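Researcher: Please translate sequence to C-alpha cells.
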Amino acid sequence: MTSVRISDDALALACGADAVAAAFAAAGCTVERVSSWGMHWLEPLVEIGGMGFGPATPEDVATILSGRSAKAIGRIAEHPFIARQQRLTFARAGKTRPLSPEDYTASGGWAALERARSMAPTQVVAEVTRSGLRGRGGAGFPAGIKWQTVLSAAGSRKYVVCNADEGDSGTFADRMLMEGDPFQLIEGMAIAAHAVGAAQGYIYLRSEYPHAIRKLNAAIALAEAQIAPFRIEVRVGAGAYVCGEETSLLNSIEGKRGEVRAKPPLPALEGLFGCPTVVNNVLTLAAIPHILSEGGASRYDNLGIDRSRGTMPIQLAGNIRHGGLFETAFGITLNELVYEIGGGTASGRPVKAAQVGGPLGAYIHPRQFDQPFDYEAFAQADGLIGHGGVVVFDDTANMGALARFAFQFCAAESCGKCTPCRIGSVRGVELIDRIRGSAPVADPVTALPQMHNARKSAPSRAEDLTLLEDLCETMQYGSLCALGGFTPYPVRSALKHWPEDFA
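Model: Translation complete:
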C-alpha cells in the first residue's frame, strides 16, 4: 500500500490539503499528516517516498500515483529552496507528525531537557549566554542575560511565559512551529523553567490560531510526564496587536486590560503576578533544545555574523513567487532572499520595496538589498528585523498610502495609555492626508498643533513635512512601547525613498 504524506498545517488546510488527503485515502493509500516543509507556493504538497508533488488537487491523485504527474518537483530534501537552508529550529519540518511522541523522541526530542536537568541552573544559563542567542520576537535582547536576571531575582515564585501572540503582517513561523513541532516549544520552556527555578509556564497566543491552540493543548497533555513537575497552560487572547508587547501580554494573562506597563520594574524582576518572569518568543524558546544538546551552544555560536548568532527563520510573503519559510544563518542579503530564493514578484513586475519586521518595519528600497540580514545592519539603516517577516511589493504599490496605513494601524491598535501613540497616530493620518492632498483640513489650527502662531491659512507643504518629522520624533522617543515608537519607521522610509508617492 502506498504511503502518502500531506501536511496538516493551517496554510495547507486553507489550500485544500484535507480534500487531497481524502482523495488519496479513497484511492487506497495510507495517508500520514505531517508538519509543513514551508514551501507554501507548492501547498498542498504531497510526498511519496521522498518525492514531492505540488500544488496538488484531488484531480491529480491518479496521475501522481501512476508517475505521470506534471507537478512532480523531485526529491523534496534536494529542492533548492530546502537544500540551501540551515535548519535548526525547523529541522523536523515536513518530517514528523506533530502530535507523535514517538516521532519526537526518535528525532532527538527530550535529550536536551534530560541533559539540562543534569546540570546546575547556572550552567544552563551560562550555556545559553555562550550561544549568543538573542530574542527572536523583535527586540533582539540576549536571552542568557534575561534568564540570569530572573535566576538571580529574589522570589519564591517565578514564571516562564511564551509570547506566541504573532501579529505582524507576513509572519507565520510561530504558527508553523506550534502546529508542526509543539513538543520542541514545550521542551524549550521546560529547560527555561529549570534554569530560572520556575514551576509554572504560560503560552499566550491569539484566538485566530485555532489549530495551534488545539495542538498545543494536546501536546502539553501528552508531554505532562516528561516535563513534570513543570506545568504549562495555554492562554488565549482576543487578537489585540499591543498584547504582543510583553507587559500588555502579562496584564492580559492576569485578566486585566491589555495595556502597556511603565518600565521599570522589568518583567524579569516584577512580571506575572508581580513575580520574576522570563518572557520569550516562540522561536527563542524553540531554539533552546538545539543549544542545550551536546555541543549545541558552540555550533550555534559559529553561525551568523557579528552579534547576530545562530539561525533566523525568515518568512517570505507578499507579492513574491516562492513564499514560505526559509531558515538560515544571519548574514544573508535581501537580494538573495527576494530574487534568488523568492524568485522575484509573483506578478512578474519589478520589485518596488520590501518591508522587513512587520507593519511597523521600514520599507527597504531595492538599492539597499545588499545589506546583510542582521540586527545591527538594519538598525544602522533605520530599520528592524523584528520577527523576521519580509513582505514584498511590486511597482504598483503606492508608498504614500502605505505610510498612511502605518499611522492608521497604530491608531486602531493603540492601547491608549500614552499620548504620543494614542493622539500622534491619529494626527499622523490627518497630516499625511493633507500632504498628499487627499483630504485637506479646513482649519489646521483645530486639527493639528502648529509650530507657529495660530493662523487661518493652511500651512505650506514644507511646513507640513517638517511637522511630520517632529511628530515622528515625538512618537519614537515619547511612546511607552514599540507600537508607537516604531510607527515612524515605515513613514520615514517611505517618504525618504519614494517622495513622489506623497504628491
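Researcher: Any highlights?
Model: Residues 419-436 form the longest helix (18 residues).
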